[in-house]
């Protein structure tokens, strides 16, 4: 086994099931007239960018595979089934067929244990994969022709505190980076999180009626813009320091840890991230954001040099 694996990109890859519904893929049972185009076009730009770098594996950390004890990874080579969003079963009934990179899952399990984390390899063949992981994987690579690694979100921020949850995710990110290095593979990390997460409680008669779609309120918008500003200026350490307050003020879905896991895996980059799109879905804030690690990690280009 070679030891020169690389993270080629990190992505904030939100998972509103509406974006899958709006795209009408053959795997999803409900049909739509479209909707949320700006976010979907942003995902198309992301696809062009990451797929051109020929990744061997996509890793996804999802808030909707929540584990009470420890961090779990999928440990069988193939999972097939029907994933239904429990809140929006009329929008997301997706027939998935996923190839898993069991070798990398196992390495993450090993490296996490070395860091003192509680880890488990999940080998139940009937396990139903959550809609968050499937949505982010579909939107990043609709062909599903690249194996994936699915990582659960541990419940520590909910049982203990935002800060304890973040610490866990920093260690999990470091373990993930070591595992990728050992694997010899070219990896893309998908942090499957929305941003501000206050949302409407009733739905328009036509779910994709874009005349009804807007951010929940101005305060949520301002929070999202402040967080995106930190990303675009390469201030990821400051960003992570701000996240516990963002979680409380905006009910931000980053509480489940995917963003911190991803930034930790990347070593808290100081180069600017690329925002491919920002938009609301049932009032929540969502951004498709890419850290082009392949290009920038060669010489850790600073934001001031990029913008000069
Ligand atoms: Fe979610």
What does this structure look like?
With 308 residues, this protein is an alpha/beta fold. The chain has one domain (6-307): 3-Layer(aba) Sandwich (Protocatechuate 4,5-dioxygenase, Chain B). The chain has helices spanning 17-23, 37-51, 102-114, 131-140, 156-159, 162-183, 218-232, 236-250, 258-265, 293-296, 303-307; strands spanning 6-12, 57-67, 71-74, 78-84, 93-99, 119-122, 148-154, 186-191, 274-281, 284-291. The strands form 3 sheets. It has a 6-stranded mixed β-sheet with strand order 7-2-8-1-10-9, sandwiched between helices. Strands 3-6 form a two-stranded parallel ribbon. β9 and β10 form a beta hairpin. α3 (102-114) packs across α6 (162-183), α6 (162-183) packs across α9 (258-265) and α7 (218-232) packs antiparallel against α8 (236-250). The structure holds fe (ii) ion (FE2). The site of fe (ii) ion has 6 residues, from β2.
């Amino acid at each position: 086994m070679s030891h020169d694996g690389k993270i080629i990109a990190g992505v904030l890859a939100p998972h509103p099931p509406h974006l899958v519904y709006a795209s009408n893929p053959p795997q999803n049972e409900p049909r739509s007239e479209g909707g949320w185009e700006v976010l979907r076009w942003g995902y198309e730009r992301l696809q062009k960018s990451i797929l051109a770098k020929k990744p061997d594996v996509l890793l996804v950390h999802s808030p909707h595979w929540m584990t009470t004890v420890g961090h779990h990874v999928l440990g069988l080579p193939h999972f097939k089934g029907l994933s239904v969003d429990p809140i929006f079963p009329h929008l997301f009934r997706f027939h998935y067929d996923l190839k898993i990179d069991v070798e990398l899952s196992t390495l993450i399990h090993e490296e996490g244990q070395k860091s003192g984390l509680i880890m488990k390899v999940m080998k139940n063949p009937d396990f139903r994969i959550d809609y968050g992981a499937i949505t982010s994987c579909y939107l990043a690579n609709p062909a599903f022709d690249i194996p994936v690694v699915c990582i659960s979100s541990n419940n520590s921020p909910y049982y203990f505190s935002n800060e304890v949850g973040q610490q866990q995710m920093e260690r999990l990110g470091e373990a993930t980076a070591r595992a990728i290095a050992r694997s010899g593979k070219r990896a893309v990390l998908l942090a499957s999180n929305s941003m501000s997460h206050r949302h409407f409680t009733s739905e328009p008669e036509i779910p994709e009626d874009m005349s009804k779609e807007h951010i929940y309120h101005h305060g949520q918008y301002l929070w999202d813009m402040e967080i995106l500003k930190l990303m675009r200026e390469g201030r990821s350490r400051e960003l992570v320091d701000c996240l516990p307050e963002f979680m409380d003020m905006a009910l931000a879905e980053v509480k489940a840890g995917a963003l911190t896991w991803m930034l930790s895996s990347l070593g808290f980059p100081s180069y600017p991230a690329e925002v491919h799109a920002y938009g609301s879905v049932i009032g929540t804030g969502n951004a498709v954001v890419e850290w082009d690690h392949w290009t920038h990690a060669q010489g850790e280009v600073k934001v001031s040099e990029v913008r000069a």
